[in-house]
Amino acid sequence: MTEAPGRSGAIGSMGELLVEFICTEKDGHNRQPSTYAGPYASGAPGIFIDQAARVGARTIFSGAVGDDAFGHVLVDRFTSVGVSEALVLVVAGVPTGSAFVSYNSDGSRDFVFNIAHSAAAHLPVGEAAVAAFASFGLDAFHISGSTLGDPVMAAAALGICLALRERGVAISFDPNVRKELLVDPSYMETVRALLGIATFVLPSAEDATVLFPGEPFEMFSRRFHDAGARYVVLKRGDAGCIGSLAGGPVEEFEAHKVGVVDPTGAGDCFCATFVALIAQGFAFREALRFANAAGALAVGKTGPMEGNSSLAEIEAFLGERR
Amino acid sequence: MTEAPGRSGAIGSMGELLVEFICTEKDGHNRQPSTYAGPYASGAPGIFIDQAARVGARTIFSGAVGDDAFGHVLVDRFTSVGVSEALVLVVAGVPTGSAFVSYNSDGSRDFVFNIAHSAAAHLPVGEAAVAAFASFGLDAFHISGSTLGDPVMAAAALGICLALRERGVAISFDPNVRKELLVDPSYMETVRALLGIATFVLPSAEDATVLFPGEPFEMFSRRFHDAGARYVVLKRGDAGCIGSLAGGPVEEFEAHKVGVVDPTGAGDCFCATFVALIAQGFAFREALRFANAAGALAVGKTGPMEGNSSLAEIEAFLGERR
C-alpha cells in the first residue's frame, strides 16, 4: 500500500495499560526500600494515544484496567486529554497492570512488570472489537512491540491489525523490541507479520540493530517501501532521526540538545506525533520535524507520558530554537 | 486444650508474602502521582514470622513469591533474620504480591492490593506441606486473618491448621478482620473455625468490636478459655493490652507513650513477640509485657516490619522506661 492515510486525523491503538513507578535513586535494582515516584499513567500504547490526542487527533484506545485506584489513574488520564475510552474495559477483581523502573548508574534499567497476570492482558478480540474500531473512522492504528511479549496479547493485537488493514486502516508499528524475546520464534513471527503490513514502520536504533543487523537505513527502508510501507522512520535518540517517504525524499533531523530527566516514553511520543500529524494532513517533513521536537520535550519530565506535549507547546519549543 | 506449648521455641506461619509501598503524602488515595517509600517486605504473616525470629524463636514460613526483584526483597529479609525459607516457593512468571497504602488526614487508609492474582496466593496444601511443617518440631503455628480474604487461601490455611492441631501444634490466630468480608458466610466460617481451635486467641480492639459485639473482655475471654484456648489477649492499640491465661490471672498493660510514625504491622509484631516468648518458656505476664513494648517500638518506624525488634532492643526500651 502506498496511498496516504485519510485526512480526518482519527487514530486508534490497543495494548497494555499500566501504572508506572520510577525509583528516584539509582542502583537499587528494585530490591531494597527506596523512594518511588508514581503512579504514572503508562504503557507504551497508552503513551502513544495520549500524545496523539494532545496533537489534535481524534483518538480511541482499547485495553483494560482493574477496578482499583490505579485503574482510575489511567481512565482519568484518557478523560482529561479526550481519548475515547469506549473500548477500555474495567475488569473486576484483577489488578491494574504495573511497571516499576529503577535506573542504574551505567544507564541500564531494571524492571518489575505485572502485565500477563493483570487486567492489562485483557485485550479485545473478535469481530465486535474490529467493528467498534472501524466505526470510529480510523485513519491509522498503532501497535507497540511492548504488547507482543505475551503470546495471547500478541495474537489479539495481530488479529485486530489484520482485520483493520483489510478495511483500509493504515497500520503503524513501533517494534520496541524486547531483546530477551528474540529467541522466541512466535514473538518474532508476530513482529515480522506486523512489519509486513505496516504503512508506518517506526523502529528505534536499538530495534534496527537487532532486527536489521548490518543494514543501513537506506537499505532497510527501501525494502519496506518495496513491500508497501509509505513511511519508514528511524528514531536515533540523541542522534536525532531519519525518515523516508515512499517515492519521496529522505529527511533527517538532528536531536535537540536537551537535558534528559526521564527517557521512558520518548519513542512512543515521537511515533504518536508523527502518525497523528500525517493523519491530519501535515507534510512528511513537517510531521517528522514536529515528532523530533516532541521526542526532545518528552525526555525533560519525570513520568512516562508527563512529557507529552500539545501542538502549541511543540511550536513554542521549535520557535524558541529558531 | 489447656496444656502449655512446648519449650523449644519453634514457630511457623504461612500466608501472603507482599512487598508494600507507602505513600509519603496524605489524601492522594493512590489515584495521582506522588511519592512512595518501598518496596518493604510485608504481609501480616511475614511481619509476624520476622518478629518471632528476632526475639529468638526458630522459625519457618510457607508462602510464595514471584521470580522478580520484589521476591528477592522478601527472601533477602527472611535470610537476614534466619527464617527458614525451605517452604517458600518461587513461582515463575507470576508477580510477587504487593500492597500500596495511602494514608488520609482523617486517619483512614486507602489500599491497592495484588494478592489473589499474584504469587502470594500460591499457598501450600496437602499432606506434604503438613509433614514439612511438622518435621520442624513446631510449638505454635500462626495465622493472620489477612490470609483469609481469598477462599482458596482460606481453605489452605484452615486445612494446614487442622492437621497441625491434630499433631499437637498450638494454633495462634489473629482475626485481623476485614470488615468488608463480614458479609461473606464462608469467610466468617473460617474465622470461627480458627477461633475454635486456637490456643492463642489474639484479637485487636477492632476485631473484638465486630466479632464479639457487646461482650467485654472478661466475657469473651472466658468463652474461649472454656472452649480450650490457653491465652486470650486483646490488643487495644494506644489503650494498651489486656490478656488472660486459662485458669490464671488477667494481666493488663498501658500503652507506652510513643510517636506513631507508621502503625502498620504493630499488631503482628505484638502477636509474634507474645507467642514466640511463650514458646521459649517466658511467664505469661512477662511475655505480655514484652509484646506490649514490641508493639510500641513497631509504630515508630516507616515500613511494615522495619519497626520489629530483638529481645535486647525490647529490654533496652523497657529499661529506659523504668
TL;DR?
Chain A has 322 residues and is an alpha/beta fold. Chain A has helices spanning 44-54, 69-81, 126-134, 151-166, 185-197, 205-211, 217-227, 266-279, 284-298, 311-321, and strands at residues 10-14, 18-23, 34-42, 58-66, 84-91, 97-103, 109-114, 140-144, 170-174, 200-201, 231-235, 241-245, 250-253.
List keywords for this structure.
homodimer, 322 residues, alpha/beta, UDP-N-acetylmuramoyl-L-alanine:D-glutamate ligase, nine-stranded mixed β-sheet, four-stranded mixed β-sheet, 13 strands, globular
Give an account of the 3D structure:
The structure is a homodimer of 322-residue chains. Chain A has 322 residues and is an alpha/beta fold. The first copy, chain A, has one domain: Ribokinase (UDP-N-acetylmuramoyl-L-alanine:D-glutamate ligase), CATH 3.40.1190.20. Chain A has ten helices and 13 strands. The first copy, chain A, has a nine-stranded mixed beta sheet with strand order 5-4-1-8-9-10-11-12-13, with helices on both faces. In chain A, strand 8, helix 4 and strand 9 form a beta-alpha-beta unit. In chain A, helix 8 runs antiparallel to helix 9. Chain A is globular, with a radius of gyration of 18 Å. The two termini of chain A are 36 Å apart. The N terminus of chain A is likely disordered.
